[in-house]
Design goal:
This protein folds into 2 domains: about 140 residues, no CATH class; about 130 residues, no CATH class. The protein has 9 helices and 14 strands. A hairpin with a 4-residue loop joins strand 8 and strand 9. Helix 3 crosses helix 5. The longest helix is centred in the middle third of the chain and has 26 residues.
């Protein structure tokens, strides 16, 4: 009898672990948000996963898009609703998480941020540093729907401002060297323009470094890059670059992110680590990492 009970417990534990592993691999299954199309890996701290009783699932970048997903599919029954713990990036039960609503940090797809934490103490520590109020899942979801109109207006206005700066993605949707979708990497994409009128659209500084190495005889006209925070196209040579940190890069393990604003770069370093540098520093790092990858 004891042996039988032991086997049942072990089976349950294996099932639980397998379920947890499946949940934590959600980014591989749902790389882009099902509502807005944004890269969920870049928003691993706010992403959500909805699992339905018909064995289907949906991945979103945020509670904003999760709310839209729920509203659009009221006929579906949710059996599990998971959200990333803001501090650890691990998926936790959205309904039992401690939510922080508001504060000074900009939200994802929303003006009023909504972050989830597994531990109450971690949420309270976040509030002490960044402001906001403690709430439940229902409070956060209610706030998401309450903010929906303002968020839509904000996003439309933002798109209007960014339209001219994102034309390169429409014209060049795929990276010239790796073929990756540049829409999913708008925060790291680059466009190298030469004086002879040719250009090279890429997903990252890694692939741009390859293009520059292949065209030493060409005169550069401009090198543009996506601002990691705003996604707007900025001058790569005048940007503030963050090299390294706890977030994997695009086409390389070491991240290399560009910011138009030095303060934004500093905030990123404070939260994720890394070192402040110039475009030349980032380019050198790209070639260093290229060798590490190839050897």
């Amino acid at each position: 009898m004891k042996r039988f009970m032991f086997l049942i417990c072990c089976t349950g534990l294996i099932f639980l672990c397998a379920s947890e592993v499946h949940a934590q691999n959600d980014i591989d299954k749902h790389q882009a948000c099902g509502i807005c199309g944004m890269d969920r890996r870049a928003h691993d701290h706010s992403r959500m996963l909805l699992e339905y009783d018909d064995k289907t699932s949906a991945g979103t970048c945020s509670i904003h898009c999760a709310a839209a997903q729920i509203a659009a599919h009221r006929e579906k029954t949710i059996v599990r609703l998971l959200v990333a713990d803001y501090a650890t990036k691990e998926l936790v039960d959205a309904r039992t998480a401690f939510w922080v609503i508001g504060g000074k940090k900009a939200g994802v797809m929303t003006g009023r941020a909504k972050w989830a934490f597994r531990e109450k103490a971690t949420a309270e520590a976040f509030i002490e540093d960044n402001g906001g109020i403690l709430g439940t899942y229902l409070d956060a979801m209610k706030a998401a729907f309450a903010d929906m109109r303002d968020d839509i207006q904000m996003l439309y206005e933002k798109k209007g401002v960014e339209h001219a700066g994102s034309m390169d993605i429409r014209d060049h949707p795929a990276c010239r060297y790796c073929g990756m979708d540049r829409r999913l990497y708008d925060y790291s994409r680059m466009l190298v323009e030469y004086a002879d009128g040719t250009s090279a659209p890429t997903c990252s500084i890694h692939c741009s470094a390859i293009d520059l190495a292949l065209n030493p005889g060409k005169t550069l006209k401009a090198v543009m890059v996506g601002d990691y925070r705003t996604k707007q196209r900025i001058d790569a040579q005048r940007a503030w670059w963050v090299i390294g940190g706890d977030r994997y890069g695009v086409m390389s393990l070491r991240g290399k992110w560009a910011f138009a604003d030095k303060g934004h770069a500093g905030e990123y370093i404070q939260e994720h680590g890394g070192n402040l540098g110039s475009f030349d520093d980032a380019l050198n790092a790209a070639f260093e990492d290229m060798w590490e990858i190839l050897r």
